[in-house]
Design brief:
heterodimer; A: mainly beta; six-stranded mixed sheet; five-stranded antiparallel sheet; B: mainly beta; seven-stranded mixed sheet; four-stranded antiparallel sheet; 0% helix
Chain lengths: 113, 112
Protein backbone atom coordinates (compact mmCIF):
# COMPACT_ATOMS: atom_id res chain seq x y z
CA UNK A 1 0.00 0.00 0.00
CA UNK A 2 0.94 3.64 -0.11
CA UNK A 3 3.18 4.82 2.67
CA UNK A 4 5.13 7.72 3.96
CA UNK A 5 8.41 6.85 5.63
CA UNK A 6 11.51 8.42 7.08
CA UNK A 7 15.18 7.64 6.51
CA UNK A 8 16.73 8.32 9.92
CA UNK A 9 15.22 7.42 13.28
CA UNK A 10 17.45 9.76 15.34
CA UNK A 11 19.32 12.94 14.56
CA UNK A 12 21.68 14.59 17.05
CA UNK A 13 22.82 18.16 16.43
CA UNK A 14 24.64 20.89 18.28
CA UNK A 15 22.70 23.93 19.35
CA UNK A 16 23.01 26.57 16.65
CA UNK A 17 23.59 24.11 13.81
CA UNK A 18 21.12 23.52 11.02
CA UNK A 19 19.07 20.32 11.06
CA UNK A 20 17.76 18.39 8.07
CA UNK A 21 15.09 15.74 8.50
CA UNK A 22 14.19 13.61 5.50
CA UNK A 23 11.06 11.81 4.39
CA UNK A 24 10.26 9.56 1.45
CA UNK A 25 6.82 8.90 0.04
CA UNK A 26 5.66 6.24 -2.37
CA UNK A 27 2.52 7.64 -3.98
CA UNK A 28 3.51 9.72 -6.98
CA UNK A 29 -0.01 11.19 -7.04
CA UNK A 30 0.42 12.73 -3.58
CA UNK A 31 -0.09 16.46 -3.76
CA UNK A 32 0.05 17.73 -0.21
CA UNK A 33 2.39 17.10 2.70
CA UNK A 34 2.54 18.28 6.28
CA UNK A 35 5.32 18.30 8.84
CA UNK A 36 4.40 17.83 12.50
CA UNK A 37 6.44 18.26 15.66
CA UNK A 38 5.66 16.08 18.65
CA UNK A 39 7.24 16.92 21.98
CA UNK A 40 7.45 14.32 24.69
CA UNK A 41 4.05 13.65 26.23
CA UNK A 42 2.20 15.92 23.82
CA UNK A 43 0.17 15.66 20.66
CA UNK A 44 1.49 16.48 17.19
CA UNK A 45 1.76 20.15 16.37
CA UNK A 46 1.53 21.50 12.81
CA UNK A 47 4.79 23.08 11.64
CA UNK A 48 4.55 23.69 7.92
CA UNK A 49 2.92 22.25 4.82
CA UNK A 50 3.65 22.16 1.12
CA UNK A 51 1.66 21.44 -2.01
CA UNK A 52 3.05 19.55 -4.98
CA UNK A 53 2.98 22.63 -7.20
CA UNK A 54 5.80 24.03 -5.06
CA UNK A 55 9.41 22.93 -4.60
CA UNK A 56 10.11 24.96 -1.53
CA UNK A 57 8.26 26.70 1.24
CA UNK A 58 9.71 28.75 4.07
CA UNK A 59 8.43 29.51 7.52
CA UNK A 60 10.03 30.93 10.60
CA UNK A 61 13.41 29.11 10.85
CA UNK A 62 11.96 26.16 8.92
CA UNK A 63 12.05 25.31 5.25
CA UNK A 64 10.43 22.36 3.51
CA UNK A 65 11.81 21.11 0.21
CA UNK A 66 9.91 18.81 -2.10
CA UNK A 67 11.56 16.75 -4.82
CA UNK A 68 8.78 15.09 -6.80
CA UNK A 69 11.22 13.34 -9.13
CA UNK A 70 12.56 11.14 -6.36
CA UNK A 71 9.48 11.43 -4.12
CA UNK A 72 11.39 12.96 -1.27
CA UNK A 73 10.80 15.87 1.06
CA UNK A 74 12.91 17.39 3.76
CA UNK A 75 12.46 19.70 6.71
CA UNK A 76 15.29 22.09 7.40
CA UNK A 77 15.53 23.85 10.75
CA UNK A 78 17.92 26.76 10.91
CA UNK A 79 19.92 27.57 14.05
CA UNK A 80 18.52 24.63 15.96
CA UNK A 81 17.56 25.37 19.56
CA UNK A 82 17.02 23.08 22.56
CA UNK A 83 13.30 23.73 22.23
CA UNK A 84 13.40 22.05 18.83
CA UNK A 85 14.11 18.70 20.48
CA UNK A 86 11.15 16.51 19.55
CA UNK A 87 10.03 13.81 17.14
CA UNK A 88 9.23 15.11 13.69
CA UNK A 89 6.74 13.43 11.37
CA UNK A 90 5.90 13.95 7.76
CA UNK A 91 2.26 13.22 7.00
CA UNK A 92 0.06 13.01 3.97
CA UNK A 93 -3.74 13.30 3.70
CA UNK A 94 -5.64 11.10 1.27
CA UNK A 95 -6.99 12.40 -2.06
CA UNK A 96 -10.41 12.73 -0.44
CA UNK A 97 -8.97 15.66 1.46
CA UNK A 98 -10.09 14.98 4.96
CA UNK A 99 -7.73 14.49 7.84
CA UNK A 100 -7.14 10.75 7.49
CA UNK A 101 -3.45 11.44 7.71
CA UNK A 102 -0.80 8.87 6.88
CA UNK A 103 2.15 9.46 9.19
CA UNK A 104 5.73 8.39 8.72
CA UNK A 105 7.55 6.64 11.56
CA UNK A 106 9.18 9.82 12.81
CA UNK A 107 12.68 11.18 13.38
CA UNK A 108 13.81 12.08 16.86
CA UNK A 109 15.81 15.32 16.93
CA UNK A 110 18.13 15.72 19.91
CA UNK A 111 19.73 19.13 20.34
CA UNK A 112 22.88 19.27 22.46
CA UNK A 113 24.26 22.45 24.05
CA UNK B 1 -10.33 29.26 23.00
CA UNK B 2 -9.35 25.97 24.56
CA UNK B 3 -7.71 23.42 22.34
CA UNK B 4 -8.72 19.81 21.90
CA UNK B 5 -9.22 18.33 25.35
CA UNK B 6 -8.69 14.69 26.06
CA UNK B 7 -9.23 12.88 29.31
CA UNK B 8 -8.01 11.10 31.13
CA UNK B 9 -4.37 11.80 30.28
CA UNK B 10 -3.33 8.47 31.71
CA UNK B 11 -5.48 5.38 32.10
CA UNK B 12 -4.53 2.04 33.59
CA UNK B 13 -6.78 -0.95 33.01
CA UNK B 14 -6.47 -4.63 33.83
CA UNK B 15 -6.85 -7.14 31.04
CA UNK B 16 -10.51 -7.74 30.32
CA UNK B 17 -11.72 -4.36 31.59
CA UNK B 18 -13.20 -1.59 29.50
CA UNK B 19 -11.44 1.64 28.61
CA UNK B 20 -13.32 4.84 27.77
CA UNK B 21 -11.38 7.70 26.25
CA UNK B 22 -13.00 11.10 25.89
CA UNK B 23 -12.31 13.91 23.47
CA UNK B 24 -13.83 17.38 23.45
CA UNK B 25 -13.07 19.08 20.13
CA UNK B 26 -12.17 22.72 19.76
CA UNK B 27 -15.12 25.06 19.96
CA UNK B 28 -17.05 25.04 16.71
CA UNK B 29 -15.33 21.95 15.33
CA UNK B 30 -17.68 19.22 14.18
CA UNK B 31 -15.10 16.81 12.73
CA UNK B 32 -13.25 14.45 15.05
CA UNK B 33 -10.49 11.95 14.28
CA UNK B 34 -8.96 9.29 16.49
CA UNK B 35 -5.41 8.02 16.05
CA UNK B 36 -3.36 5.40 17.89
CA UNK B 37 0.36 5.66 18.48
CA UNK B 38 2.50 2.77 19.62
CA UNK B 39 5.85 3.57 21.28
CA UNK B 40 8.47 4.79 18.82
CA UNK B 41 5.99 4.74 15.94
CA UNK B 42 3.95 7.21 13.98
CA UNK B 43 0.26 7.82 14.48
CA UNK B 44 -2.16 5.44 12.81
CA UNK B 45 -5.61 6.61 11.75
CA UNK B 46 -8.49 4.81 13.42
CA UNK B 47 -11.79 6.59 12.83
CA UNK B 48 -13.31 9.81 11.53
CA UNK B 49 -16.59 11.09 12.92
CA UNK B 50 -18.89 14.01 12.42
CA UNK B 51 -21.68 14.83 14.79
CA UNK B 52 -23.69 11.62 15.31
CA UNK B 53 -22.12 9.95 12.26
CA UNK B 54 -19.17 7.66 11.65
CA UNK B 55 -17.67 8.69 8.32
CA UNK B 56 -14.68 6.37 8.08
CA UNK B 57 -13.77 3.62 10.53
CA UNK B 58 -11.39 1.78 8.25
CA UNK B 59 -8.52 2.01 10.72
CA UNK B 60 -10.39 0.71 13.71
CA UNK B 61 -10.29 -2.97 14.70
CA UNK B 62 -13.60 -4.68 13.97
CA UNK B 63 -13.88 -6.22 17.41
CA UNK B 64 -13.84 -4.59 20.84
CA UNK B 65 -13.38 -1.04 19.54
CA UNK B 66 -16.16 1.47 19.00
CA UNK B 67 -16.42 5.23 18.68
CA UNK B 68 -19.18 7.77 18.90
CA UNK B 69 -19.63 11.50 18.67
CA UNK B 70 -23.06 12.34 20.05
CA UNK B 71 -24.99 15.49 19.38
CA UNK B 72 -24.17 16.70 22.87
CA UNK B 73 -20.98 15.93 24.71
CA UNK B 74 -17.54 14.65 23.84
CA UNK B 75 -16.50 11.98 21.40
CA UNK B 76 -15.88 8.63 23.08
CA UNK B 77 -13.48 5.89 22.02
CA UNK B 78 -14.44 2.70 23.79
CA UNK B 79 -12.28 -0.39 24.04
CA UNK B 80 -13.91 -3.46 25.52
CA UNK B 81 -12.06 -6.37 27.11
CA UNK B 82 -8.70 -4.68 26.79
CA UNK B 83 -5.57 -6.71 26.09
CA UNK B 84 -1.91 -5.80 26.58
CA UNK B 85 -1.60 -5.00 22.88
CA UNK B 86 -4.06 -2.14 23.33
CA UNK B 87 -1.48 -0.26 25.38
CA UNK B 88 -0.72 2.87 23.39
CA UNK B 89 -1.26 6.60 23.22
CA UNK B 90 -4.59 7.53 21.70
CA UNK B 91 -4.85 10.96 20.11
CA UNK B 92 -7.90 12.87 19.08
CA UNK B 93 -7.89 15.67 16.53
CA UNK B 94 -10.62 18.04 15.44
CA UNK B 95 -11.24 20.34 12.51
CA UNK B 96 -13.86 22.68 11.11
CA UNK B 97 -14.23 20.75 7.86
CA UNK B 98 -11.43 19.89 5.45
CA UNK B 99 -9.20 22.36 7.20
CA UNK B 100 -6.20 21.89 9.44
CA UNK B 101 -6.75 19.40 12.24
CA UNK B 102 -5.60 20.22 15.77
CA UNK B 103 -4.48 17.43 18.05
CA UNK B 104 -5.12 16.91 21.73
CA UNK B 105 -2.50 15.87 24.26
CA UNK B 106 -3.51 12.25 24.06
CA UNK B 107 -4.57 9.53 26.49
CA UNK B 108 -1.92 7.02 27.43
CA UNK B 109 -3.53 3.67 28.02
CA UNK B 110 -1.63 1.02 29.93
CA UNK B 111 -3.08 -2.46 30.19
CA UNK B 112 -1.68 -4.52 33.04
Amino acid sequence: GESVGLHLPTLSVQEGDNSIINCAYSNSASDYFIWYKQESGKGPQFIIDIRSNMDKRQGQRVTVLLNKTVKHLSLQIAATQPGDSAVYFCAEPPPSGYNKLIFGAGTRLAVHP
Amino acid sequence: NAGVMQNPRHLVRRRGQEARLRCSPMKGHSHVYWYRQLPEEGLKFMVYLQKENIIDESGMPKERFSAEFPKEGPSILRIQQVVRGDSAAYFCASSLSNTEAFFGQGTRLTVV
